[in-house]
Amino acid sequence: MAAEHILVVEDDEDILELVSYNLTKAGYRVTTAVSGETAIKAARSKPPDLVLLDLMLPGVDGLEVCNTLRRDQRTANIPVIMLTARSEEADIVAGLELGADDYITKPFSPRVLLARIKAVLRRKTKAPAEEQTVIKLKELVIHPGRHEVTVRSKRADLTATEFKILHLLARRPGWVYTRQQIIDAARGDEYAVTDRSVDVHIAGLRKKLGPLGSQLETVHGVGYRYKER
User: Fold this and answer.
1) E strands of 21-171, at which residues?
2) Which domains does the chain have, with CATH numbers?
3) pLDDT tens, position by position, for the chain (229 residues)?
4) If residue 11 lies in a helix (H) or strand (E), which one and from where to where?
5) How far apart are CA 76 and CA 134, in angstroms?
6) CB neighbours of 65 closer than 8 A, spacing ≥ 6?
């Protein structure tokens, strides 16, 4: 099997060299970009298996890069790990809202970085048949293969995380999922994220689903479910 391809986006030469060295040593194929613009072009021309993305970039910043990748069908499903000096909760929530699969703050341990990359790539390869089945719930249609959601035949523009959460809930209408189950499904057990982040994603989903937003029901003291109509 060919080595997995990782695009490293980092404008600090020392960090770029350190990360590239450790990834290459671990057996990954590495390409690099030092700006948001070149990162987007590189991801579109030759989609990598994962993007390791700094936030504070010249020109287009990392959040906008992530947002652009998630909005493009060619790159929407590429896992993104944000690697940044920003450690405030607001920054982490912003990254998660835009669909980042993990968030690592600087300074970081190369061993921990490699472990997180392996964890994200491992989750990417787990795609049971159930997870690829098109879901049709009257006016809601979810197409996992296309990473596409339509509401009354109109496309809903969801982030990767919002898509994962909606897909989880809609697979079993009426089934109640706890916040922790939602976190595990959307992020994996290795990712530490607060209950508040789940609430933020649900609020975003309700808004984007428009007339169907009320189908995402809060079950107080437990979690959320997609109501059957």
Assistant:
1) 29-33, 50-53, 80-84, 102-105, 135-137, 140-143, 148-151, 154-156
2) 5-125 (3.40.50.2300), 129-226 (1.10.10.10)
3) 458 999 999 999 999 999 999 999 999 999 999 999 999 999 999 999 999 999 889 889 999 999 899 888 788 889 999 988 877 777 777 777 777 888 888 888 999 999 999 988 887 765 554 566 889 998 999 988 778 899 999 999 888 788 889 999 999 999 999 888 888 777 654 444 556 788 888 999 999 999 999 999 999 988 999 997 6
4) none
5) 17
6) 9, 36, 39, 40, 53, 57
Q: Which long-range contacts (CB under 8 A, 24 or more apart) does 152-157 make?
A: 152/211, 152/212, 156/208, 156/209, 156/210, 157/71, 157/208
Q: What is the DSSP letter of 188?
A: -
What predicted TM-score, i.e. pTM, was given to this entire model? Answer: 0.61
